[in-house]
Amino acid sequence: MMSGYTFRAMEVHDFTQIWNLDEIRRRLDFMVRNGMNALVFHEPGIEDKIVFPAKFLGGSGNPDSYYDAFLEVDHAILYHALRENLNLNRRDYINHVIREAREAGVDVYFENKELWFSDFVLKYRKELMQQDGTICPSDPFWYEEFLPYKYKELFLALPDLAGIICSIGTGEARLAISNTFACGCDRCKNLDPVEWYKNMILGMYKPFKEAGKKLIIRDFIYTKAEQERFQKAFIDMPEDIVLSLKNTPHDFYPTFPDNPLMGQVGSHPQITEYDVNGQFFGWGAQPSAMLSDIRRRLRYGKEHNVTGFLARTDWEGVQDWTCFDNLNMVNLYAIAACAEDENISDEAIYLKWLEGEHMLRENLTPGELKSCIGRMKEWLDETWPIVEKTNFVNGCLFSNDSCIHLTPDQFTFIGGTHHSLSEWDPEKKDALEMSAENIRKIIGDKEWAREKCEKLADQVSSGNPGLTEEAYDKVKEHFEFMRWYVRGFRLTARGYCFGRYVREKDGNDVIAEGKTAAELLKENIQEMECYREKLCTMPFIHTYPFDAQLNPERVDFYIQALKKMSGGTAR
Ligand SMILES: [Zn+2]
């Protein structure tokens, strides 16, 4: 037995949850019961809700305490940066949370993105702003002065914060290497991005080292070339800097291969991130039990010297919705349990979940209990294979963060270019080729998923396996939603294929089901119109976030886009 996963973390990414003490207590309760020991608050700029940073408002740059830093600039705050006045209260909240967490044996981390800063920093250092209004990311100010001071002040404010998980170089930051093209200065033009990464990480590192805090850097990377640059920069960094790797490259797509950077960073400690709620596989509105994927990914991590995991339980793009609200909660139980004991059975995980969430009816006989666990396992085991053929097309991400696309072209951009699978799996380079043969394969997959899902949803609604009434109603609702979700994605995928064929090739070609592409497209538009009409009569369509994922407005927008493709002449 290898030593395994010692860092067992839960990530809260929805900021409405981070700042809600009842919600945090619910999370901590789960962590105590399931052997987890780190809580991660992921919010870009979260540190800016705590630090001023006083130095850039006229402070000395060397305050003895957080209140000293504040008093150095309290007048400047009132005149120039009034919102910073609220930082003191937010600091009190976070310090309180840290105290409660420590009592529960849990360390608290922030997860953020650099560079991030308040606008007054630009006034402090006017040279950052270029004539055309862009801000220069390569100015030494950032790593020589800004990052070292900001984190020094943060650790004065939150002395018991365990550390930071930081993405550097992502376009999701306010300023980063990936948008250096925006700055036209000579330094930026001649900049080796490897140097930039190094400078930024080392700029952060010093105050961490001094305060005894853990610095964890994420590999927030879109392409292989970027990843290689990052690896080159990272490997020579001080050894106590931890690397946090998504289980898959680029983002959390279960159809993608293992992250090739794993195990390739010398002696740096590594942790792996896993999205249990499913930004890309249905947010748990559509259930998707990932037990076998979780086992496989954790095993792969272990074989590559990974010693921690970070389970993402929600997503910043969807407010007030976490795996704690839906059936994908079973994935959180699974990752916590498998990290402790890789040989634990699926049945034991399902039982932990059903018991932990109080879903079992009282007074079940032992036989009824056994059969209930069996039925739930049977149903949930069927979900991921269906999801895989719903939210993905030949392994490419086929959804707009799990919502219906607005147009077919949006998929070509998101699934084919922006989130390209072929970048990481060259065999997939023709995954979106619109040959008649490939179209038949794609629509065949969608047909398979629909048939499976209709049967599954029928089974689920045919009888309560031993759950409380409330739990069973919830299970039924999710599977009924899934039925409609799978139907909808079957239609958008068919429309995508037929529409592209008509536009790019010849609508008169017979391509599938004995019909021409133009006929198939026309029929699909009619079918989608009926679908939309019926969708609007379903009870779940008034429930959040079901109404976001299968938003009838999106369906209608997609239909209109297909009509335009249908109206265009072939060739
Ligand atoms: Zn520049």
Task: Give the key terms.
571 residues; alpha/beta; TIM Barrel; eight-stranded parallel beta barrel; 20 helices; binds zinc ion
Q: Would you write up a description of this structure?
A:
With about 575 residues, the protein is of the alpha/beta class. It folds into 2 domains: about 280 residues, Alpha-Beta Barrel (TIM Barrel); about 200 residues, no CATH class. The protein is about 50% helix and about 10% strand. The chain has an 8-stranded parallel barrel, surrounded by 5 helices. Strand 5, helix 9 and strand 6 form a beta-alpha-beta unit. Helix 11 packs across helix 12 and helix 16 packs antiparallel against helix 17. The radius of gyration is 25 Å and the shape is globular. The mean pLDDT is about 95. The structure holds zinc ion (ZN). Zinc ion (ZN) binds next to helix 7.
Give a quick rundown of the structure:
The protein is α/β, with parallel strands linked by helices and 571 residues long.
Helix/strand layout:
Elements: E1 7-12, H1 15-18, H2 21-33, E2 38-42, H3 66-80, H4 87-103, E3 107-114, H5 120-124, H6 141-157, E4 163-168, H7 186-189, H8 193-211, E5 214-218, H9 224-235, E6 242-246, E7 270-275, H10 291-303, E8 306-312, H11 329-340, H12 346-356, H13 366-381, H14 383-388, E9 392-393, E10 396-397, H15 408-418, H16 436-461, H17 469-504, E11 510-512, E12 515-516, H18 517-535, H19 546-549, H20 552-567
Parallel strand pairs: 1-2, 1-8, 2-3, 3-4, 4-5, 5-6, 6-7, 7-8
Antiparallel strand pairs: 9-10, 11-12
Helix pairs in contact: 6-8, 8-9, 10-11, 11-12, 12-13, 16-17, 17-18, 17-20, 18-20
